[in-house]
UniProtKB/TrEMBL annotation:
Keywords noted in UniProt: Pyridoxal phosphate
UniProt protein name: Pyridoxal phosphate homeostasis protein
Residue ranges annotated for the Alanine racemase N-terminal domain, each copy included: 12-209
Organism: Thermus composti
Lineage: Bacteria, Thermotogati, Deinococcota, Deinococci, Thermales
UniProt similarity note: Belongs to the pyridoxal phosphate-binding protein YggS/PROSC family.
Keyword Hydrolase belongs to the record: no
HAMAP family reported in the protein's UniProt record: PLP_homeostasis
Transcription is among the record's keywords: no
CDD domains: PLPDE_III_YBL036c_like
Amino acid sequence: MGLPEVLDKIAQACRRAGRDPKEVRLVAVTKGRSVEEIQEKVLAYGAFPLGESRVQEALKKMDLLKAEWHLIGHLQRNKAKHAPRFALIHSLDSLRLAEALEGVGEKAGVRLQVLVEVNLGREPQKHGVLEEELPELMARLREMPHLEVLGLMTVPPIGPEGVVRPIFRRLSELADRYGLPERSMGMSDDYEWAVEEGATLVRVGRALFVD
């Protein structure tokens, strides 16, 4: 497919939903991709945010590529010290991690921008807070001056549209409830549904790199 085709599909999904395509940002997932691939398949088309799942892999690429880096995978507390290197953390998934990040932000003298990951599919193998845990976590986060919560993120169960789309719709409803502008949802197989349900950040990898 490739990046231009993905952007076109995002624009089409926006039109179907009566949205402005400028409301949606494509985060190029570069996990496992070489610097050369990223330059050829992504950065040749513009300054798109790059999303990495693992801190160590991201740090190696940061030294070689100038870009806006997002952490989209689980962040272990012992690697929280690297959070200031990222423009956005998509995967704040516990109060303990929030406390660690608050300490890092305070020490660095910065305000870290984060999204709260919500496990709306209630899958035990996935990270994220459950929906019923969100009110308490949000209340605690508002007390942390070095964290700025911009929105919510989710990874839905793998399944058909009837399973996936309601998850995206629910995340948008929750973001609205908390007055949060960003909704990070949708990957290579389902980003068009996500856009139609209100995504502002879509995390696409495979579809950008497959010829």
